[in-house]
Design a protein that fits this description.
single chain; disordered N terminus
C-alpha cells in the first residue's frame, strides 16, 4: 500500500528495490541536421510526452522556440514547424516574457494541456546587470517557473494569469553574481487526486539549495501549486514584481537529489516510483558524474542513488569529454497513462547528446534514446 505523501519516514525507508540496466543500442530520435525547421530546433530540455485527444503522441524536447514533435507513437515523431510557444525577449522582468522552455506538461483529456515553463531572464542582455562582464552569464540569470496552458491539444500555449508558480522572493537585480530562482522542473505525475513535480532552487538567505517538491490539484491554475515544507504542502511563491508579500517559508529539499530529477515514473508491477537525475561527482552519493536513479514509495523518502550511465554532463568541465550528455527522461512506449508517467519492465532513456569543441559544449546536438530494463531486486540481507 502506498505511504501517504508527507508521512514521517526516515531517509531511504521502505524504498522498493528495482535494478535498472542500460543497453548499448543508441537510437537517434531527432537530429537537427536532418529534422529541424530552423536553427532554433536543438535538444535543450528533458523530453516530455502526452497523448492528445486523437491518441497521437505530442513531445516537447527542444529549445525556447517551442515546437512539438508529433506522431502515432514515440518511435515515429516528426517536428511540427508551427511554433506553439515563444517568449519575446522582453527587457521587462515583470512581464515573464524573455526566454521560455516548456519543461513539463499534463493533460487529463488530450485537449487542455497545463505546462510548467522554465523562464529565464538575463539582465546582461538588456543593460540590467551589475557584475563584471566575464561573470554576467550566470551572475545576471534570474529564473522563474511560470504556468502556461493550451486548449487545442498543444498546438498553441498562452501564459496563465497570474503566471508565477515558483520564484525567489526578490527581484532580478537582487543578489546578482550567481544564478537565482527555480530551475528545470521534472515531469508532472499524478497520485491520489493530486499532481506533483520537482524543481531545484539555488537558494537564498532562509532557503537551502536543493530539489523541492510541488503539489496541485488543479495544474491548469499556476497559482494552485504549493511546495513541501517538511510536513505539508503549504508554501505559495508570490510574484516578486507584484504587491509585497511576507517571505515564504523554506521548502524542504528532498534528498538525495542534487537537482530536480529529470524524470519520475511509476513502475506498474512494483508500484515503485523511479527517479532519474543527472549529477556531478561528489564525495557522498555520486562517485562519478552521470545519470543516476533512485526509488521511493511516497515521493519523500528515496533510496540511495545508483549509477545508470557514467558520463560527463552540462554540470561538468567539458575539456576532453568529446560529448556531453544531459536532460535525461524515462518514457515507455507502452505507457498506460496519457502523460507517460508509468513504465513497465522496459522503458527508453531519452537524453540530449552534444558535441564538445575544445572545452565548450556546442549546439551540435541530437536527441537519442537507449533501452532500459527494470527488474525487481531482492532485499539486501
Amino acid at each position: 500500500m502506498m505511504a501517504a505523501i508527507g508521512a514521517s519516514l526516515p531517509a531511504w525507508a521502505d524504498a522498493p528495490r528495482v535494478k535498472l540496466t542500460l543497453a548499448d543500442d543508441t537510437q537517434i530520435m531527432f537530429d537537427p541536421k536532418r529534422d529541424a525547421c530552423d536553427g532554433h530546433d536543438v535538444p535543450d530540455v528533458n523530453a516530455r510526452a502526452f497523448r492528445d485527444a486523437d491518441n497521437k503522441v505530442v513531445m516537447f524536447a527542444l529549445h525556447d522556440v517551442n515546437r512539438p514533435l508529433r506522431g502515432q507513437d514515440l518511435s515515429h515523431l516528426k517536428l511540427d514547424c508551427k511554433v506553439a510557444f515563444k517568449a519575446a525577449f522582453s527587457a521587462d522582468p515583470a512581464a515573464y516574457d524573455h526566454q521560455s522552455w516548456i519543461a513539463a506538461t499534463w493533460t487529463d483529456n488530450g485537449k487542455d494541456i497545463a505546462a510548467v515553463v522554465h523562464h529565464e531572464f538575463h539582465g546582461d542582455r538588456n543593460g540590467q546587470c551589475n557584475v563584471p562582464k566575464d561573470k554576467a552569464t550566470l551572475g545576471c540569470w534570474f529564473n522563474t517557473l511560470i504556468g502556461a496552458a493550451s486548449h487545442d491539444g498543444g498546438a498553441t500555449f498562452t501564459k496563465q494569469t497570474p503566471p508565477v508558480i515558483a520564484s525567489a522572493p526578490f527581484r532580478q537585480d537582487v543578489e546578482q553574481g550567481r544564478h537565482r530562482g527555480f530551475f528545470n522542473p521534472s515531469n508532472i505525475i499524478a497520485l491520489n487526486g493530486n499532481h506533483y513535480f520537482f524543481s531545484n532552487t539555488t537558494g537564498w538567505a532562509g532557503q537551502r539549495y536543493g530539489a523541492c517538491l510541488f503539489r496541485s490539484a488543479e495544474p491548469l491554475k499556476a497559482g494552485s501549486w504549493r511546495a513541501y515544507d517538511g510536513k505539508g504542502f503549504t508554501i505559495r511563491y508570490a510574484d516578486p514584481y507584484g504587491p509585497k508579500q511576507p517571505a515564504p517559508a523554506q521548502c524542504q529539499p528532498i534528498a538525495p537529489f542534487p537537482v530536480a530529477p529529470g524524470a519520475i515514473v511509476r513502475q506498474r508491477s512494483s508500484g515503485a516510483w523511479i527517479a532519474v537525475v543527472q549529477a556531478w561527482k561528489d564525495d557522498k552519493s555520486y562517485p562519478v558524474p552521470g545519470f543516476y536513479y533512485a526509488t521511493s514509495r511516497d515521493l519523500i523518502a528515496w533510496s540511495e542513488p545508483r549509477l545508470l550511465f557514467a558520463t560527463k554532463t552540462l554540470f561538468d568541465n567539458a575539456c576532453g569529454a568529446g560529448r556531453l550528455n544531459s536532460y535525461p527522461s524515462l518514457l515507455d512506449e507502452q505507457a498506460q497513462t496519457r502523460n507517460f508517467d508509468d513504465v513497465g519492465d522496459e522503458a527508453w532513456l531519452y537524453y540530449a547528446s552534444m558535441r564538445v569543441d575544445g572545452c565548450s559544449h556546442t549546439s551540435d546536438r541530437v536527441l537519442v534514446r537507449r533501452k532500459v530494463t527494470i527488474k525487481p531486486e531482492a532485499a539486501a540481507r
